[in-house]
Inverse folding.
């Protein structure tokens, strides 16, 4: 099993297009790099402040990495049905009722995606009037993540809607493979003579 097979979730394949698997893989890698960079920049910020020589620009880097990780992560989670998805309601239903609820849920998510695109773009344009300190970078560099995430959420929601209407939303998942975990001996062993 390759790294790509581990990162691209195979659950609910009937709702996914194979053409978007590479996009999911790239977005998962980007999220991993952003989270690693965020952790590294927070650590560096703490260390530089502790030794008395703070690097003020690290706060800008940290906030940028954090914001992009959140919004790109939300988009990936939408494709994986791990976010912006109300599974408890829909999975308890079958037939036409489930189809109606699944479509309604995804239409709501699509509405949220369009709000992210529209209002995110408005904030992005307004962000050119405000600047981050100490670098002087327009705050629009942060706001760009919002319409980007909205577009990705919309793409993945349309993918699920089209495939769900064609193939049905109610497909039983194959059982997960149980991996044998060796038993651990937890008994207390005493050595003679102690």
């Amino acid at each position: 099993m390759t790294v790509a097979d581990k990162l691209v979730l195979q659950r609910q394949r009937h709702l996914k297009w194979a053409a978007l698997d590479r996009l999911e893989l790239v977005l998962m890698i980007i999220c991993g790099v952003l989270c690693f960079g965020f952790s590294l920049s927070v650590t560096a910020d703490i260390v530089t402040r502790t030794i008395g020589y703070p690097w003020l620009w690290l706060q800008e880097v940290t906030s940028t990495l954090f914001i992009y990780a959140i919004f790109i992560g939300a988009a990936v989670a939408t494709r994986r049905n791990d976010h912006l998805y109300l599974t408890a309601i829909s999975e308890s239903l079958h037939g036409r009722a489930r189809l109606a609820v699944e479509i309604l849920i995804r239409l709501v998510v699509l509405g949220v995606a369009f709000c992210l695109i529209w209002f995110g773009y408005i904030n992005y344009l307004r962000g050119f009037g405000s600047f981050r300190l100490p670098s002087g970078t327009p705050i629009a560099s942060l706001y760009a993540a919002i319409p980007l995430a909205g577009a990705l959420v919309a793409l993945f929601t349309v993918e699920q809607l089209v495939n769900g209407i064609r193939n049905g939303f109610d497909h039983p998942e194959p059982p997960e493979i149980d991996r044998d975990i060796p038993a651990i001996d937890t008994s207390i062993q005493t050595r003679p003579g102690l």
